[in-house]
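Q: What residues go here?
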């Protein structure tokens, strides 16, 4: 290309740091190899394990685990479940490794984003993060997604290949957003709790142009990235650092719907119980609480054996406690009515086989929902320093 070339190609902007990292040919080839192995794990290897476990399906999950411990297929399955995640994150072309090397540049990107529309990002970095959050390396991500700017970007890049068998990665979140729209007044206030980098918040924003949409998360880094992405796309979303179990920035009876995707399996039961009470406080009478998470497990004991194994192997300890929790009873105790837990399709027709084990490895997606009765008023009162309507 000549130095005075003014064609479109010559004027093309430099790719963002994160795009350059994942676009590097060696990184892309290595990550594609890991995704290919994960696809093999999710389909062929899973099918062998599932068919072997079917012979002991009458036994409880712990005993299935013992019976399967001598199976070569299961040992390979379990080993790969741990190590594919580590391969994706670490080593020469691992995402966490590569993004950490660019931490300063990525911090610069977040800082630039924060300068644009600063009133739409309210980080509360003086407030300490809870122990259960900082002491657990969820998804085997060392140091979590809250320590450094690069952690948020690595998390965003890694999330693209969590479910390689699903045909359309963003579809689950879009259909959840459609559900949120269906249960919320068009001009209502929606909180996307545990919003991460905005995977559900953005489709809610797009689906509900007349609503006030607020993303809430514990991680200031992830919120900075969510804010940056919203600014880049011209999406009007406020992002606020807060805790689902102690929402100091939200007033009583100020929210129409609290939605959360993939959040509640990341907190211990006592924290989740407190979160239900806190949701009840901030919801308006008639307001709705809806989680998209793992609860109704298809495939009976074998299905539970597989998801409990995932909980251990991917370091997601609170999946186990969520599955053991009596959600209906805890919701009722918090004051909610119309409590329901309903299987939710990862993609259209994923649940076509009803309660049987799915054909491929799939998360047991469930809508867990309830309504704050229209007539009652919340018990405790709190004045917030940030109004969601501002
Ligand atoms: C698995 S991610 C899901 C992110 C996003 N909702 C999605 O569907 O991709 C869970 C998110 O919840 C946040 N989180 C965990 N505990 C929280 C809490 N107690 N209050 C608010 N956010 C929390 C984490 O920081 C993380 O961003």
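A:
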């Amino acid at each position: 290309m000549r130095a005075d070339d003014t064609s479109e190609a010559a004027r093309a902007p430099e790719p963002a740091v994160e795009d350059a990292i994942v676009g590097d040919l060696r990184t892309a080839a290595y990550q594609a190899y890991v995704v290919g192995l994960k696809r093999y794990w999710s389909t062929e290897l899973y099918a062998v394990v599932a068919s072997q476990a079917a012979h002991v399906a009458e036994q409880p999950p712990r005993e299935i685990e013992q019976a399967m411990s001598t199976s070569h297929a299961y040992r390979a399955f379990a080993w790969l479940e741990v190590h594919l995640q580590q391969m994706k994150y670490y080593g020469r072309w691992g995402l966490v490794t590569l993004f950490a090397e660019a931490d300063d540049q990525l911090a610069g990107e977040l800082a630039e984003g924060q300068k644009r529309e600063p009133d739409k990002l309210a980080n509360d970095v003086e407030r300490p993060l809870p122990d259960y959050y900082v002491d657990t390396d969820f998804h085997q991500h060392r140091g979590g997604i809250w320590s450094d700017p690069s952690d948020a970007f690595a998390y965003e890049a890694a999330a693209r290949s969590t479910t390689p068998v699903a045909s359309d990665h963003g579809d689950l979140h879009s259909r959840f957003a459609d559900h949120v729209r269906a249960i919320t007044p068009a001009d209502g206030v929606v909180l996307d709790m545990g919003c991460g980098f905005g995977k559900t918040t953005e489709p809610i924003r797009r689906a509900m142009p007349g609503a006030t949409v607020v993303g809430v998360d514990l991680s200031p880094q992830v919120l900075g990235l969510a804010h940056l992405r919203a600014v880049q796309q011209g999406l009007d979303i406020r992002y606020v650092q807060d805790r689902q179990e102690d929402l100091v920035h939200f007033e009583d009876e100020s929210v129409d719907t609290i939605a959360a995707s993939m959040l509640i399996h990341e907190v211990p039961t006592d924290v989740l119980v407190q979160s239900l009470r806190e949701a009840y406080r901030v919801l308006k009478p008639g307001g709705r609480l809806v989680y998209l998470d793992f609860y109704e497990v298809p495939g009976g004991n074998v299905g539970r054996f597989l998801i409990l194994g995932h909980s251990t192997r991917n370091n997601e300890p609170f999946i186990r406690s969520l599955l053991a929790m009596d959600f209906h009873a805890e919701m009722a105790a918090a004051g909610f009515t119309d409590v329901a837990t309903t299987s939710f399709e990862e993609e259209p027709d994923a649940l076509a086989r009803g309660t049987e084990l799915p054909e491929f490895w799939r998360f047991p997606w469930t809508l867990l929902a309830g309504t704050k009765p229209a007539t009652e008023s919340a018990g405790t009162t709190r004045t917030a320093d940030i109004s969601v309507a501002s």
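A: Context that may help when evaluating the design: Strands lie at 121-122, 189-193, 212-217, 238-241, 255-261, 283-294, 337-343, 365-371. The CA atoms of residues 42 and 144 lie 25 Å apart.
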